[in-house]
Amino acid sequence: xxxxxxxxxxxxxxxxxxxxxxxxxxxxxxxxxxxxxxxxxxxxxxxxxxxxxxxxxxxxxxxxxxxxxxxxxxxxxxxxxxxxxxxxxxxxxxxxxxxxxxxxxxxxxxxxxxxxxxxxxxxxxxxxxxxxxxxxxxxxxxxxxxxxxxxxxxxxxxxxxxxxxxxxxxxxxxxxxxxxxxxxxxxxxxxxxxxxxxxxxxxxxxxxxxxxxxxxxxxxxxxxxxxxxxxxxxxxxxxxxxx
Length: 243
Description:
This protein is α/β, with parallel strands linked by helices. 43% of the residues lie in helices and 15% in strands. A hairpin with a 4-residue loop joins β2 and β3.
């Protein structure tokens, strides 16, 4: 009995104290990411803040305390209609996603956001130099103006000079006369992915993955307006961070 009480009242060892402190820091980073970060990204965040630890220790503590990253959902509605008679363009970008300066290469795409009122569609333009969104638009439909409004915002925000390369899929919105007229007006070269090949626009797909995992899948939007406001704040906060 004496030995039991001596053990019970004994203070925690320095190692145990350090693990408790580290667990608190891990919980904080995990919460700040809305539960989207796994052990590699939490370790990287801790290391950036000069907190000494091992990625295996982070993984072990997360596993022991039931902390895990949110995984992306698998069902993705189709937002691309490439079955049309409009002109299409060759893949000039050819998976070269490097850009030394802003306004050299833009990539574009459309994604969906689930709400209690139905789908909300989001079109965005991303600059490959900063990897940030420079133009976006949200509507309850997939008509061409969804994409032209995103392009107009990017053009007004950035005022690009000659030589800009614009890459998208072969969807009817991007191949439309109205959209192509806008590209021609600014002397922008058009590039399009091959049919059914998401890797031709991998950076844009990666951005959608981050948006869905880190933000959209953490919430349930009752209305499209609620989703618009929330996504606006997420995109604009991300975009302004490197201005």
